[in-house]
Amino acid sequence: MKYTRLTKEQLEELHPEFINFLASQSIDKAEWDIIKVKQPEVAEQELDVFSDLIWEGVLGNAKYLEHYSKNYIFLFHCTEVHMMTIIIRALVTDVDLLQKEGLQWLSDNLFTDNVEVQRGQKVFADDRNKEIFELIRQGAILTDGELFEQMNGILER
Question: Which of 31, 48, 61, 77 could lock onto 84 through a cystine, CB 3.0 to 4.6 A?
Answer without folding.
Answer: 77
